[in-house]
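Exercise: predict the fold of this chain.
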Amino acid sequence: MRLLALMILFSVVLFGAENNETKKNIQEQMKKEQKYAEEQKFYRADEYDFKGAEVNEESLKNIPDQPEYNDDFDMDHTYD
């Protein structure tokens, strides 16, 4: 009888420890899934509005032309 009580007690303690560990693992996995879902939302960009980042073609006309790049510049040459 004593052996049976010890086995039952051991089973309850073991099951309780496993249950706590299982809950802990489930919570960790849920956090990982939540992080993954947030990252996927970012990469898919389904819910982002990019209208504000579009270039207004009319505003480009007001930008002055840039001078041509001088690619034959020589650091050893002295200019007077």
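Check your answer against the key: The chain has a mean pLDDT of 77.
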